[in-house]
Amino acid sequence: MAQIKRAQRIREWALYQLCTPLRWVFDHWMEHKKLVFIYCVMGEGIGDALAISTILKSLNQQQGYRGIIFSRHPELFLHNPMVAANISYRELSSLSRSLFKTFLRAMRGKHVVCFGGEVWTLGTSPLSDYSIHQEMKEGWVWLKFLLPDGNVSLDYKTATPAVYFSPEEFQVYEQKFAGIQPPFALLKATTGVGRPGGSSLKDWEIPKFAEVIAQNPEVTWVQVGQTGEQSVPGCLDWLGKTTVREVLYLLSKSKLLLATEGFLTHASAAFDVPCVIPFSGMHDYRGLRYPFTIPVVANPQPICAPCWRDNCNQPGKPCTANITANQVTVAVRQGLTNTITT
After folding, report:
1. Between vectors from CA 308 to CA 305 and to CA 314, what angle results, nearest 5°?
2. Which of 36, 64, 63 is nearest to 147 (CA)?
3. Residue 4 in this model has a pLDDT that exceeds 90
4. How far apart are CA 156 and CA 154, in angstroms?
5. Could you say which DSSP state residue 67 is in?
6. How does DSSP classify residue 212?
7. Helix ranges (DSSP H) in the chain
8. Which residues lie below 8 Å from residue 315, measured CB to CB, with a gap of 6+?
9. Beta strand 220-225 with 184-188: parallel, antiparallel or unpaired?
10. Model pTM?
11. Which of 34-38, 50-54, 121-125 has the largest mean confidence?
12. Which is it for strands 35-40 and 275-278: parallel, antiparallel or unpaired?
């Protein structure tokens, strides 16, 4: 496997060098048009794709760039005035995708931003065995280390994503969700169904979520997610009944989000919605915070955290088992206190 990766790095480096004259011309044209190309090479991670809007918003504010976006989740960038073109990965043929990605890899630089890692990282030796996993340590910033080429300057403490809706969407969604009594809060109780790797390690116990819901009856609780996720007593059950755009609309109108770490915890930052997260010890919570994030962690955290593992080797998963419902209730009331009267 290591030899295959090394061969890929060498090929990619050679292609990059060969295309230098073309890249100069392309950079000049993109600068003239004030455009930047951002493409996400991650898998199905919708939270990672949403972070593209964080990068674009920063570049737009700093330098006036508009973006050409290439991703698996174009629905995240609809109606965004900073987006010049929104290209869907899924709508291209396999051959077209391969050729397009080859071109983008050769054009990487100031105006072509890779998000999510590549085989070869600009500025490193083609023989390097660099991996993003080597950077997974205490205090790392998730967004920073998913920009392998280091060609984007962000204030990682204040950077947030951006989501926009059309007037027509507002009208349709207002009608669909008219039966939800405000004020309401959203619950995303699990990472989802069929998630890869160690995603389920982020999950907190359903009975504890139910206890938190019962202790905070001043809002209507709306549970969102996929069909097949376990429902939580005390919530309106909207599992499997919303599109991505619809759940983003609900989030924009909610007073608070209570959720495991994932897509919606990132999306909440687009609307300045307080987000309470019972954090597992899988990630370092300090690298995933936004201005309105309210993290809840075990105190003390187990010595194995952050572990970055795909499976837990500790009896009882203490990083989440030691987070109490009372801790989360205090955090929820903190978030609601700041929004319930506004």
Report:
1. 55
2. 36
3. no
4. 6
5. E
6. H
7. 2-18, 20-33, 46-63, 94-107, 167-176, 206-214, 244-253, 263-267, 318-321, 325-339
8. none
9. parallel
10. 0.92
11. 34-38
12. unpaired
Average pLDDT over residues 135-164: 80
The residues, any chain, with a CB within 8 Å of residue 274's CB and separated by 6 or more, are: 255, 256, 257, 268, 292, 294, 334, 335, 336, 338, 339
Please give the structure tokens belonging to residue 281: 């010890």
Q: What is the pLDDT of residues 299-342, one digit of tens each?
A: 888 888 888 888 888 898 999 999 999 999 999 999 999 765 44
For the chain, report the end-to-end CA distance as a whole number of angstroms: 55
Burial of 231-264, coded b for 16+ CB within 10 Å and e otherwise, reads: ebebbbebbeebeebbbbbbbbbbbbbbbbbbbb
Nearest CA to 226 out of 254, 188, 260, 277 is that of 188
Tell me how far apart the alpha carbons of residues 29 and 213 are, in angstroms, rounded to a whole number.
Answer: 54
- Quote the tokens at residue 1: 């496997």
The whole-number pLDDT of residue 48 equals 85
CB 255 within 8 A of CB 219: yes
**In order of start, what are the domains of the chain with their CATH numbers?**
2-146 (no CATH), 180-339 (3.40.50.2000)
Place of tokens 């915070």: 289
| 185 bridge partner residues | 221
Q: What is the pLDDT of residues 81-127, one digit of tens each?
A: 999 999 999 999 999 999 999 999 999 999 999 887 677 888 888 88
Say how many residues make up the chain.
342
Eight-state DSSP code of residue 301 = P
Span of 93-107, 204-218, 234-248 with lowest mean pLDDT: 93-107
Average pLDDT value for residue range 248-259: 98
